[in-house]
Design a protein that fits this description.
By secondary structure, the protein is α+β, with helices and mostly antiparallel strands. The protein contains 5 helices and 7 strands, in the order E-E-E-E-H-H-E-E-E-H-H-H. A 7-stranded antiparallel beta sheet has the order 1-2-3-4-7-6-5. Helix 1 crosses helix 2.
Length: about 250
Amino acid sequence: MMWKPFRSNDGNNFMVKWNKNDQEFTFFVTNLKQIWTSVCSIESIVVKYQQLNPLFDLKLEEAVTQVLNIFEDINQAEVKVTIDGSTLILKIEMNLTGSEASNIKTNFEIEFVKAETEKFTEMITIAMIQTINFLETQQKMLCNLLEKKDREIEEYQMEKGLISRSDLVTGKFDPHSLISSSQKLILNVFGNSKSFMDSIDNEYGEAQENVFQVEVESWNNVKKKRKYYDSKTALNSKCTKIVYKNNNS
């Protein structure tokens, strides 16, 4: 499950996420400085929900669904956060899910225990590094795709002449337009060191995301001179074509 951001009643920012393993849930909450965790069995979640909402008569599966809906839409809830030493308590109040019950309030409360620094490093710091690297890889792919498009158009114009339809003519993409010079953002950093990311992946596991790879083929790295066809070359021009790399057709 992805992180769900929310704002507490006193104006502080938090994120929460949870994982299901066998018959229990593990919840995590962070203020981006520290992280707290809570391991709850399904039975304990249902008991707590029924204690806080005695007027609701729900089956086990329905109660669990309501609790998960609360966390799923936590950014729309009233959330009171209490931190006492290593303990953090979330008290959540929101409208019961369902259009016919929009004015009925439902409550839930969960207690967390502060986790070790290593858990924060693993779930926040490393995850952000991997996210940034993933976005950098995506950006590189998109830049290559746009450059490939520009060069394919240029190749076409060299072989066939100018494109006549104005709605097909596009401005040439400048890859440098996406390079940020900000001294505050962490951009174009991690993707520049393969050994750095390899060590992160080896210790914490690879990010489970794949990016479609696009490379600008060597054949259109070199500009071609425009070919002009006349009556002497007309027959040969029928056989003229652009040969694409890795083209099996």
